[in-house]
Specification:
The chain is α+β, with helices and mostly antiparallel strands and about 80 residues long. The chain folds into 2 domains: about 35 residues; about 40 residues, no CATH class. Helix content is about 45%, strand content about 15%. The chain has 2 helices and 3 strands, in the order H-E-H-E-E. The chain has a 3-stranded antiparallel β-sheet with strand order 1-3-2, with helices on one face. Strand 2 and strand 3 form a beta hairpin.
């Protein structure tokens, strides 16, 4: 049976993409905006305040995912 090369490549890419997505879901880093388990965006005015908020969230099972530092303000999600 003849299978076009583009079809084989498409299937391989699809399987690789699903495998990557599954592994990201397994470690808790969903690459898609859904399902959204709730947004947690906090702004801290100092590195000490940021460390305190992150420590408090870690006690409740939430970890820091993204960071955006702009000058004296520490933004993180």
């Amino acid at each position: 049976m003849f299978l076009p090369k583009w079809l084989i490549l498409l299937v391989v890419l699809l399987i690789a993409g699903l495998g990557t997505w599954t592994s990201l879901l397994a470690i808790g880093r969903n690459p898609l905006p859904f399902p959204d388990v709730g947004s947690r965006i906090f702004v801290a005015s100092s590195p000490e305040a940021k460390a305190a908020i992150v420590a408090l969230l870690k006690q409740n099972g939430t970890r820091e995912r993204f960071r955006s530092d702009s000058g004296p303000v520490q933004d993180f999600v």
